[in-house]
């Protein structure tokens, strides 16, 4: 290959990076100030109209991102499967569990969900409120923000444990005024081979699930949601970095969504204070995670077979 031909791919990558960076930056500066400005009005008076307007503005920002994915990253092939028994609506209320491998996972969720599900939120730490723009946006858009005390602090003052639970309950109940998708990465951190080995995880493709967050969400919202959704994301060519994705270096992304049936005994249990319920709930989540692990193995095998 001549030096001139070698330069062409590099030039395309630079051009793509500049295009993506410029459009996302411009879109953020265009959409961000109205969200923050309208959010400030909620300090004086709560308004459903303001909330709806802010969601529309946020969805407009996501629409720009999705346009970039479709038109500037055309080499990325998407394989999205939704099980037949899962009916999704923009007016629904959903809890969603997902495996976690990369910062790209959230973009994948937004790409899929923009026209199929309500705006996705997830639990965030209260401390993020002090990050300029980002923390305020999370608060304004109704992301559940939790003040969590350490085990040491709770040991000294057990009352803090119930205060944290009450904060979580209030945060979740605020979502009920509108359609929502509440996302939970059960692994609690991104999957890496090193973490997998350190945990001695019994799963081939997943870290051990942390059941507490899902138990909390189900105890507060479980009888008010339309479905518990399991999203599985597979990158057949390896988990990418965020920069790799936006430079168009991710050839394929596979997504599967299925509905998880919630047993009657799950609702109304006390995960924090009832050891028997906690053990039974953890066993249930482990079973779900085993099914998910097998699904990932199957999805990877399908792509490996297609590559031969």
UniProtKB/TrEMBL annotation:
Q: Which residues form the Phospholipid/glycerol acyltransferase domain?
A: 94-236
Query: Which SMART domains does the UniProt entry name for this protein?
Result: PlsC
Q: Which chain positions lie within coiled-coil regions? A: none
Q: Which InterPro entries match?
A: Plipid/glycerol_acylTrfase (IPR002123)
Q: Which GO terms describe its molecular function?
A: acyltransferase activity
Going by the UniProt record, its keywords in alphabetical order are: Acyltransferase, Transferase
The name this protein carries in UniProt is Acyltransferase
């Amino acid at each position: 290959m001549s030096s001139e031909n070698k330069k062409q791919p590099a030039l395309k990558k630079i051009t793509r990076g500049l295009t993506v960076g410029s459009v996302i930056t411009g879109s953020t500066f265009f959409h961000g100030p109205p969200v923050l400005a309208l959010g400030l009005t909620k300090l004086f008076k709560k308004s459903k109209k303001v909330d709806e307007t802010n969601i529309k503005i946020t969805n407009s920002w996501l629409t720009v991102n999705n346009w970039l994915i479709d038109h500037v990253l055309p080499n990325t092939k998407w394989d999205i499967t939704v099980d037949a028994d899962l009916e999704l609506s923009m007016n629904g209320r959903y809890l969603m569990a997902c495996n976690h491998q990369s910062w790209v996972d959230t973009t994948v969720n937004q790409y899929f969900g923009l026209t199929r599900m309500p705006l996705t939120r997830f639990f965030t730490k209260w401390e993020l409120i002090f990050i300029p723009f980002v923390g305020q946006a999370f608060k304004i858009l109704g992301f559940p923000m939790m003040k969590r005390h350490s085990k040491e602090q709770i040991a000294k003052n057990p009352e803090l444990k119930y205060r944290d639970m009450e904060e979580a309950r209030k945060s979740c109940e605020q979502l009920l005024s509108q359609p929502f998708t509440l996302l939970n990465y059960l692994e609690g951190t991104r999957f890496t081979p090193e973490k997998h080995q350190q945990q001695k995880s019994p799963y081939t493709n997943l870290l051990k699930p942390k059941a507490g967050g899902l138990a909390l969400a189900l105890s507060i919202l479980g009888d008010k949601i339309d479905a518990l959704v399991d999203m599985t994301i597979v990158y057949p060519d390896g988990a990418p970095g965020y920069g790799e994705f936006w430079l168009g270096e991710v050839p394929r992304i596979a997504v599967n969504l299925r509905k998880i049936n919630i047993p009657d005994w799950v609702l109304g249990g006390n995960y924090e204070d009832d050891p028997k319920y906690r053990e039974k709930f953890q066993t249930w989540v482990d079973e779900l995670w085993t099914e998910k692990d097998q699904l990932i193995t199957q999805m990877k095998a399908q792509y490996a077979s297609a590559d031969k």
